[in-house]
Amino acid sequence: MDLFKNLESFELDKNKNKLFGLKCPIIWGNFKNGGACPIIYLRKPKHMLQEDFDLLLDSIHIQIKILK
After folding, report:
1. Phi then psi for 60, rounded to 5 degrees?
2. Measured between alpha carbons, how far is 57 from 42 in angstroms, rounded to an integer?
3. What gap in Å lies between CA 7 and CA 28, rounded to an integer?
4. Which residue in 26, 25, 27, 33 sits closest to 8, CA to CA?
5. Where are the beta strands (DSSP E) in the chain?
6. Which residues of 27-46 are buried (b: 16+ CB within 10 A; e: fewer)?
7. pLDDT band at residue 40, thresholds of 50, 70 and 90?
8. With contact defined as beta carbons under 8 Å apart, do 11 and 57 qualify?
């Protein structure tokens, strides 16, 4: 995939300042040319307590496998 070839890194933004009017955390992809784009939006399930969701976010480790 060409998208992953140009990505340099990923980062989790807990989005406390509600970027784009969204309340959910965002996983951003950072490109080699300095650009960035949202890759994944995470939403808290309604049945989950906010403190449990925060613990989940703190434990996220991002690993991308590129299949050929």
Report:
1. -70, 130
2. 9
3. 10
4. 33
5. 7-13, 26-31, 36-41
6. eebeeeeeeeeebeeeebee
7. confident
8. no
